[in-house]
Amino acid sequence: MTVAALVESLRSRGVIAADAPPFAHAGHDRPWFIALLQGAAGWLAGLFLLVFAAMIFEPKTTTAIFVVGLVLIVSALGLYFADRNAVFLDQLALALSIAGQFALAWAIMKDQKSAVLIAALLLAMQCAVFAVMPNKLARTLAALFASAAWIYLVRLWLRPGNGGVDDFFAEDGLHHAPLMGGASVPVGWIATWTPLVLATWWLVEREARWMARGAADFARPALTGMLLGVTFGGIVTEPLTLFALRDTELGIPFNLWSLFPLLSIGLALYASYAAFRVRNPALVGIAIAGALLHLSRFYYLYGTTLMWKAAIMLVVGAALLLGARLLRRRESA
Amino acid sequence: MSARVKRDELDRIARSYSLDATAVESLLDAADARPSRADRQDFLAGCARHGGVLSLAAGIVFFVAANWGRMAVFGRFALLELLFVAVLGIGLFKPPPRFVGRAALFLSFIITGALLALFGQTYQTGADVYELFLTWALLGLPFAIAAQWGVASAAWIIVLDTALLLFCGWQPRGGLLWVVFDGGRLNATHAILMAAFLNLALWFAFEKVEVRAVPDWVRRVALTCGMMFVTWAGVLGVTGNDFGGSSSSTRAIAFVGAILALAAVTWIALRWRRDVYPLAVAFASFVILGMVLIAEAVDTPDEASLFIMAFWLIATSTIGGRMLVKLMRQWRVETA
User: Fold this and answer.
1) Would you tell me which of A111, A132, B72, B195 could form a disulfide with B164, CB atoms 3.0–4.6 Å apart?
2) Do the interacting molecules here have an ipTM over 0.85?
3) How many domains does chain A divide into?
4) A202-237 pLDDT, tens per residue?
């Protein structure tokens, strides 16, 4: 159905007045692969610009790095407001914004000892970027990064490490008692994912309401960004060094709690269902790819025998096929 | 299936006509923007079905990979072969296009790979890993064709490309491909170009002969894999970091081959005027090659090459994105 046909349909249903002016086609539709191409290019350009700025200005102190980051973000904001319709300026603004965010993140992480505080500040930064940037892709990325910051915040709060930036990337080899003992894993999972799942569910359910209130400029990218966070966030719920293929380090010992990350697959499938409900086929595909990625993580990450893993997958497979059959029966009943 | 109005357009319509919540509900209904309850159940059932088949396939692969040492060799083979015969029987008894038949034949394809892995592992044939994947692709081809399913076709393409990637990347000395690309007259660079052109030929053939078992998204997988090899060849051509030394003729062949492939894909896509995805992938490859060229050409200072690369990325992605969207809209109007 074309936009013109849809508007005519609205006229005939009496939703809009018969003499309402014709709809001015803005023509901002971009397929997902073009958005991906431009997003990836903006990302990479942002990194290059940051390194360039660092080499030219050689900021040595945290304040200098912070100022460089702020200048880059304010420049991006200026470019976005300069001409909303110029794609070139959009791309340049995205690159500068990303470069500025990296610089601010660097400034935050440089001298902070508390990993929880770092995660909280990064979350606040992404929320500010989301609120301020008048660009859909920038807001979507901000929502995605905010989701990642939230995941780290909960994880590091419940399972503190040595403190500082290393906790984001490596285990320090020392044992740190989780805040709630063994229950830290399920509590952490619930605390991490419940807000994201509820928020995205609410956004899907109440779509008509926020569209009517003119909040689509915020709600739409928030929904996409958070669904991407739900899809891939499971990867950052474990220390990256455990994603190793070395003989000596093949993951955490198997116990019931280690089944929780299998739920990452379930989360990715929830994201695909939510994306289907808003008719976003690209996001459905990405979510399904995320689910497959989590499946391969399960193969490599968890230190149990392959026989157990095979048994789990066979049981899960049989359960899913049974579920599919029951759903089909309900449909035809 | 007719194209639906995108969400962004719906948002603009709602804002433009100041629709209230009830009116927006009518807008979403008129645009068929929300799947019905039946559609949602269908989707969940489809996900469960596909997920179930993939889980079973993963379980079988994990099972073989477990190297079940307690069973005798004969027992291991017997178990896997019985499973193979069982799913093949289901596939013949309830053939495609029924889902059970498709899934069974897909599993037959997967078990073929598992059997070959077990064979190689048990008898220590000395074959390289790429030979496993290549043999899997060759022996599994009849099952992929018989399944008449996009998932099976995509899996076959991925297995084939894994074989090609392993051969081109590790340059193992042995096996079927080594007979041809042994570093004498033909070397790794030629192998990469061969892999690229093979994928592109598959894409072209499937676009020409529209087969239901190879839907749009599977053709795009073949094209994307092809363009990855093209980009690889182009990077080798620019940097000259070939496996067997960087002779100028090899570099020239790699570079020219990559450019020819990009030109061919672009020309075909512009001729067909159907889908901008081939143009987007070719463009992405062009952008990457440009970056590598800049990094090679600008020796010092480093700041200059970083700035030029950033500018290259911004300018090309902007111009390219604009052109692609313009073409997409033009072709959409032409085909409407």
Assistant:
1) B195
2) no
3) 1
4) 999 999 999 999 899 999 999 999 999 999 988 776
